[in-house]
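Table S4 entry, MFS transporter.
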Amino acid sequence: MASKAHSIQLFTMSSPSMRAFHLTWMAFFVCFFAWFACAPLMPVIKGEFGLSVAQIANINIAAVAITILVRLIVGPLCDRFGPRLTYTGLLLVGSIPVIGVAFAQSYESFLFFRLGIGAAGASFVITQYHTSVMFGPKVVGTANAAAAGWGNAGGGVAQAVMPLLMAAMIMLGVSETLGWRAALIVPGVLMIIMAGVYYRYTQDCPQGNYLELRAAGIAIEGGKYSDAKGGAWDSFKRAAANHRVWLLFITYGACFGIEIFIHNIAAIYYVDHFKLSLAQAGMAAGSFGLLALFGRALGGWASDKLAASGSLNKRITLLFVLMLGEGAGLLMFAHAGDVTLAIASMLGFGLFTHMACGATYAIVPFVDKRALGGVAGIIGAGGNVGAVAAGFLMKGLGNTQQTLTVLGVVVAASALCALAARFSSSTEEEAIVAAKLAV
């Protein structure tokens, strides 16, 4: 019977594990491209609808708020129905508001569709779940981080590509109003195409698909919680009872939450504060997202290397250090006096942020293997809670620089939660045994 992969062979898709690896980051890329497609066009949309600062803040909050609920749901659904069916459904359902936002005629309708688009952000949890069940302990951190990082880069690509796509539409003869609308239809269509590809070419785990395996009486990755009829709810309850899950919920909110927040405000911040053009601001903001191409993978790889002896707490220490670096860099970005320093400091703290995200999900597979979906879902939702909290903070303060300063202090303080999530000596011993058995 097929087993988990203990190496990552990037240039092949012949095995179920590598097909899942490549297709899950591609699906994630498409979802994140769609999720952040509106952000770089907000200066244009703001003018068309006459949006106030408070209304823009509401839109940014809406973009990440619904993702909290959907992430909590899709993790346990992966335990019950498998990542293949869950991802296919999310892509199809998520494409509806992505296409719908192109037809918004008012602030209220735009806000409604922007809220719905947030469901695409839950794709992250499915990606992390799928790679977690496909790869063994020696490389699972790297696999999780690389798949998440490459997929996450979709947000950065959207920042740079969407203004160019709108410009291309205008060059074809359409008005600016129709240009941004036509551009926003593209990611919705890509989601529909990706749903068909994912359903056709992936499977849930190395042994096959969950529903078929259960019908044959074969035990699968999630243990009794994915085999039971109430598996999704049981997985969630078991994960929610684990204190370590909530500590990582906070730390993920302080790294991925900040990442989402920067995606949503970077372009308009560069336009308003440094007077860059829409295309220049898009490129500057896009460079932050493109760090995910290697930043997350670097965090996961470093975590795997440090824990090669089986020491899970070395993964914890790495996360602590990365979050301190993120907080310090965020403070530098907040007080950058010119655009060059702002971009340089953004890239600096951005690297720590992406690495911290990768290091967090290098820990997730070891928190509770019997409730993997619940653990991944709750911690993933923490990222969006952090983004929503940052959005409300900005709305309350009314000043981007002040908001960034406060967030820098909060991020550095939340690093203490990473230390509090240290594993017990018995869990450490189990990890050492697992590391020796993984060949």
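The first helix runs from residue 16 to 35.
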